[in-house]
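LAB NOTEBOOK - FOLDING QUEUE
OPERATOR: T.R.
BATCH SIZE: 2
PURPOSE: Compare the predicted structure-token outputs for two unrelated chains run back to back under identical settings.
PRIORITY: normal
REVIEWER: second-year student, initials M.K.

ITEM 1
FIELD SEQUENCE / FIELD STRUCTURE:
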Amino acid sequence: MSAEHARLLIVDDDEGLRELLVRYLADNGYAVAGVGDGEAMKQHLLNHPVDLVLLDVMLPGEDGLSLARGLRGADAPAIIMLSARGEEVDRIVGLEVGADDYLPKPFSHRELLARVAAVLRRRQPPPEPGRLRRFGPFLVDTVAHRLTRNGEEIALSGAEFSLLKVLLDHPDRVLGRDTLVELLKGYERAPFDRMVDVRVTRLRRKIEIDPARPVYLRTVWGEGYLFSPRGVAAK
């Protein structure tokens, strides 16, 4: 979950600290709100979806540990407990009531930022089996239809992506034009032989350093095309 999409709620009765944290986390890309007690927290959660709550232990009225117990459930936000009491027993109790992390006060802003990012990362659902595929410096998300090279996205047309997906499913195997046409029928209505050649040429421009000497998508003369995820230089 990236910062630009994560929504945080700070629950702390120290107004100065609360406002400071709201500003700091907002400056680092999070959508942040702050409240001073448990009742205000509950009211906020009724009206605003939240991904993570930074929850002080010592609050007026209902304390943070009790509030954390009430936030359990499949759709509950993540919780980082904040407390001036940093003894081991307090940290254990905080984690036992459902907190994802426990940060004793005083803490550095950088550490808080790192803890927030780590908790949000752990809460992300795992990728679907087989969804992410790699070859060379490339990462392919077969569900989102995205191709990236060292983190930078490479724009592919739907037709180019469908060909890449077929190749990923049949690595290190020579595929003739007729075979590729047959395999692509599951992706589009009327693939045809000449279009396969055109598509191969276009895809090479996106994934090869030198399309004239391909290392991933090679031509096997008289037979068809061979996709090598390891990148074997053409002879």
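ITEM 2
FIELD SEQUENCE / FIELD STRUCTURE:
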Amino acid sequence: MIEAHAEDAPPRNGRLQLSYIIGTYPVLTETFIDREIRHLLDLGVDLEIVSIRRPRTDLSPAQRELSRRVRYLLPVSWPGLVLSQITAAVGRPRTYFGTLSWLLSRRHDGAPRRRTAFHFVTGVYVAHVLRRRRGIHLHAHFVDRAATVALVAARFLDTRYSVTAHAREIYVDAFLLRERIGEAVFAATCTEYNRRYLADLVGPTVARRVLRLYHGLDLQTYLEGPERAPSAERPLVLAVAQLAERKGLRYLIEACRILADRGRSVECEIVGDGPLRDELGRQVRELGLQDRVRLTGPLPYPEVVARYPRAAAFVLPCIVTAEGDRDGIPNVILEAMAAAVPVVSTPVSGIPEVLRDDDTGLVVPEGDATAIADAVERLLDDPALGMRLGAAARSFVSSEFDLTRNVDRLVERFAAVASGPAAHG
């Protein structure tokens, strides 16, 4: 056995203690995790953040500040990694070899088992890194490698773990999903659509531990911002997104060509970066839209927020890709709704949970550029419609996506399980 020495024991001062495990953190497109973490810290939670990899992209100033709190595993300390494996294998051989054998014997749906072996080794190393926090609850963001690492680490730290499930790791790279959720004390996910899908996947016993928990927004940022003042001369159509296929941005660009052909003088800004940046830029040039559509690249959060009041419409025509990739509820849709900007989107995944057609926004079919153009034109022709949709959207988001209330619900769940029985192994 690996002994828990007095100096390794966590402080018992009444504060809620948590250790977060994330694959890569921070990430420019995952500000919802930033908001959650900041609120936990504001509540006085003793929070240790472990990220497997360092971020590869530019970070906002606030994220750079958060990154100074993060313990990064890579590049790895090789002496520490070797020591962690030897100590665990010799001190707790049944847990070490039993967990490794169990993980590798699970169905992998074509995914390489060497990846799981690497995540197992990483989990043992995390337990070594967090040995002074033995018994403290672990939480993994994303049911991917982070969840496997948390599963393994929990067994060596004599504690339990929970997970938050988001989108891609549920529908695309979903191997070991049943195990990662089934071993967790609870799984939170950000849409009812996801909750139902996962409940069907894991079966009724585990499904009771799967809960829907919407992301939270710092609503004051939008409620106290400037009043909407869209330009009537050249209305702004705004999109904020990772430039990835599931966002459906090529259909927005096609819609801009249709609007131009109809004689509409519309400016479109697409804020963000991603794998399709070159392809989308080429589409803009091929359609002759250089003076109408601008790919701004990634922008700091305050600059994005400042664009919302100027927008006549926010358009994010999400799709389900051929490999099954899709969003949950894109946080930028919620931001636009909080800013009272009329939103045009599609009935994909969890989006209909917030966007009700002709009530809190306009819903168009997937992959239909003409329908997008029609919806934008409808908003341009009827400013009162945009005002009505924006007001209803803001009211809905205020009632369902308040950051304080939603993170407090997560904290209540953490507090309920943090003092529960340790993991077995």
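REVIEWER COMMENT (ITEM 2): The chain has two domains: 6-216+404-418, 220-401.
FOLLOW-UP: none requested
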